[in-house]
Amino acid sequence: MLRLLNPRRAAVAGVLGIALLAAACSSNDAGTTGTQTPAASPTTAVPMTASGPFGAACAAVPASGAGSLDALAQDPVATAASNTPDLSTLVTAVKKADLVNTLNSAQGITVFAPTNDAFAAVPKPTLDKALGDPNGLLTTVLTYHVVPGQLTPDQLAGSHKTLQGSTLEVTGSGQDFTVNGNSSVVCGNIQTANATVYLIDQVLLPNS
Asked: Is the pTM here over 0.85, yes or no?
């Protein structure tokens, strides 16, 4: 299993944000907008990009077996997340919103995935409220963490329209990236069969 290090704990206040991955604006619509890069089928490993995964939290990725880079590359994104212990809260939210099949069948997406520490910083009443509104608030926030197309590290900086409809902003370069000014990428450029994943240390909130 992939056990990620936690280089910093998130200081998140406000409404729940979630990120891995919603590939549609509702649990019944797998369509996306914008230019997308076709992904390999769930049974075909996606080749690593030249730069490979980066970030302090990547140091705990096992070299082989479940949760390894090779294993994650063969699974669709929701399944890969379920094999990553530090994304268990995210996986719970994705299941609650009935988005597992939608995410797994999406073609070519980028997911900004908050770790368990990121969710732990969200006030419990706020988290409970989001989980209690799976087809409303929860789906809205989930889709805000997903961008059409698989962004490589050299494409990451800039403004990106999300599936939720709002825009998120990534700044930085090399192996140092920040999303929306306060959420850092702690392990990035992880490949799954249909997505590129960047683990972040705070949940993201759409502007509207």
From this structure: no
- For residue 203, CA distances in Å to 11, 17, 49, 142 come to 9, 4, 26, 10
Domains of the chain in sequence order: 56-200 (2.30.180.10)
Residue with tokens 């698989």: 150
Q: Looking at residue 32, what is its pLDDT?
A: 37
Q: How far apart are CA 189 and CA 16, in angstroms?
A: 24
CA dihedral in degrees (124, 113, 144, 120; nearest 10)?
10
Give the span between the Cα atoms of 65 and 205, in whole angstroms: 34
Give CA–CA dist 180/133, Å, rounded.
24
Determine contact, residues 182/172, Cβ cutoff 8 Å.
Answer: no
Q: How many CB atoms lie within 10 A of CB 108?
A: 19
Q: How far is CA 64 from CA 88, 144, 192, in A?
A: 21, 32, 15
The encoded tokens of residue 142 equal 């989930």
Q: How far apart are CA 139 and CA 98, in angstroms?
A: 9
Q: How far apart (Å, rounded) are the C-alpha atoms in residues 197 and 6?
A: 16
pLDDT at 55 over 50: yes
Share of the chain above pLDDT 70, in %: 75
Q: What confidence tens digit (pLDDT) does each residue in 163-188 have? A: 999 999 999 999 999 999 999 999 99
